[in-house]
Amino acid sequence: MKVLILGGYGTFGGRLAMLLAGDLRFVLLIAGRSREKAASFCASLGGGARALPLAFDREGDVAAQLRAAAPDIVVDASGPFQAYGAEPYRVVESCVALGIDYLDLADGADFVAGIARFDAAARARGVYALAGVSSFPVLTAAAVRALLKNGETLDSVSAGIAPSPFAGVGLNVIRAIAGYAGKGVPILRDGRATRAPALIDSRRFTIAPPGCLPLGRIRFSLVDVPDLAVVPAIWPSLRSVWVGAGPVPASLHRGLSLLAWLVRLGLVRSLAPLARLFHWAISRLRWGEHRGGMFVSVAGRDATGGAMARSWHMLAEGDDGPFIPSMAAAAILRRALAGAKPAPGARSAARELELGDYAPEFSARRIVTGVRDTVEEGVTAPLFRRILGRAWDDLPERVRALHARAGAHAWEGVASVERGRGLPARAVAALFRFPRAAAAVPLRVEIAPRGERSMWRRRFAGRGFTSVLGAGRGRFERLLVERFGPFAFGVALVRDGETLRYVVRRWSAFGVPMPRAWAPGGATREYDDAGRFGFDVEIRAPLAGLIVRYKGWLEPASEPGR
Q1: Are 316 and 366 in contact (CB under 8 A)?
Q2: What pLDDT is attached to residue 445?
């Protein structure tokens, strides 16, 4: 298959080329205004597919350039599609007229909706022209379909993407966002078609696939994407649809939202003239974790009329996240080579793929996904089940047994204890009443419910300390919160094979959020120890080093408390 990628050395076109480069069945025409840049990109691409540079001017004679290149399919990955001028579909028209298949990575709602005007002509020529072949709306729609069960009625859909601060957002993407920031975006809200201000209308969400290290609670702001029109057309029962972006660092996001108010208040016409400044800032003022994610949340009624609410979560580590917007195009091209070519016609690509079609692309990279069921994870479920979601069922039976029991119960066993020797370590250990060093000491753990929380009292040969465990809310959402008096620690529960790991993500003192860099840490885990509950708890602190480490095993006690 000979694939002509317009914008082939750009942000999304370049990553599409990288996804396809290892497949010898493709010949890639890397096209853009600069043949020199295209040639340089081809030289660095690697992989077994042939990659050829090509100069292409979409403002010139498009049909003549397409005839000369003679591709099997054209992928438009350039943009910004919102600014294609008076003739935004020149490439589409030429492809249909010449009998060339076409798809694009458009993120503009109007552009994606408008491609339908070429449906009859595309059908007559026996070619397909698919718009919006990207995360929005293809991955969104695929996730919604995967979340729904037979007989369920869909009432609302919300979605959001949170790119890593190091993802490298292209200038054209920034231009598009700056062009509509502060302006009214058509959305469906409470059964009524209305408009809401882009980059101002906001909500918060925590992306947390079950059993994985979650992202923090992120503020997402409304963006103008095809989903706002495409998703209600697929599911007419919908009363609300909302899609946002959650760029980080949060301070830059907040600054952009404040500037959007200038447009909202009519003080300036557009932020588009500042696009280059925004691009410079987001490319240089970067900090935080090199991780990104996406969520899709649905709500409605199940087959019996009861409430239904689920969410699909995706996490991508490091440089793998920026490949996701190009994966839909890669999947469609691979399916076409395998004989599953899209049907002729011009339309949105929202119905072309299912989540399973993404699986080969996801599995080749550090991308994990998972589903959470809000009803199943309600307050009636055990505390750890609420936080772990579906990952709960994959834990060792002994670990689940300790955390699943209702009412007051106790466990007994043996532990060995190490203590830090420095003065700061000894002072912290004394403050929290941690056990003294010992080679093997009897241990009793008593667990008692306290409303939605539980109190844990640990007794090492009579000397004990107590903490209160509960499910986090707000900034601590999707975390286990352990409280020692005025100190609260937000801990992620991470399933690592047959082990449950504890990872401190946030903390506060006297209700005041504290810097993560100052947070205590350590390698803490629970596991099956030859049929017993095994544990290894390590607490370290910056500057102080090791505070305490205790490890051993527990079995159910004959009496709940003494």
Answers
A1: yes
A2: 96
Question: Measuring CA to CA, which residue among 90, 134, 53 is closest to residue 353?
Answer: 134
Instruction: Report the distance separating Cα 376 and Cα 358, nearest Å.
Output: 27
Specify the residue for token string 């026996």. 126
Strand partners, 245: 161, 221
SS (H, E, C) 228-260: HHHHHHHCCCCCEEEEEECCCCHHHHHHHHHHH
The number of residues making up the chain comes to 562
- Residues 407-426: pLDDT tens digits? 899 999 999 999 999 999 99
CA distances from 308 to 86, 90, 387 (A): 45, 44, 18
Q: pLDDT for 306-340, tens place per residue? A: 999 999 999 999 999 999 999 999 999 999 999 99
Give the residue ranges of DSSP H helices in 46-83: 62-69
Alpha-carbon span 369 to 157, nearest angstrom: 18
Report cis status (omega within 30 of 0) of the bond before 80.
yes
Neighbouring residues of 451: CB distance < 8 A, sequence distance ≥ 6: none
Give the number of other Cβ atoms within 10 Å of residue 191's Cβ: 9
Whole-angstrom Cα distance, residue 43 to residue 37? 10
pLDDT in tens, 154-198: 999 999 999 999 987 778 788 889 999 999 999 999 999 999 999
d(CA 560, CA 562): 7
Helices 250-264/275-284 angle, 10° precision: 170
Instruction: Please tell me the distance from the alpha carbon of residue 142 to that of residue 484, in angstroms, as a whole number.
Output: 44
**Amino acid letter for position 172:** N
Token pair 């600054």 in the structure block, residue: 255
d(CA 163, CA 383): 30
Helix (H, G, I), strand (E, B) or coil at 468: strand
C-alpha 445/C-alpha 422 separation (Å) is 28
- What pTM value is reported for the model? 0.92
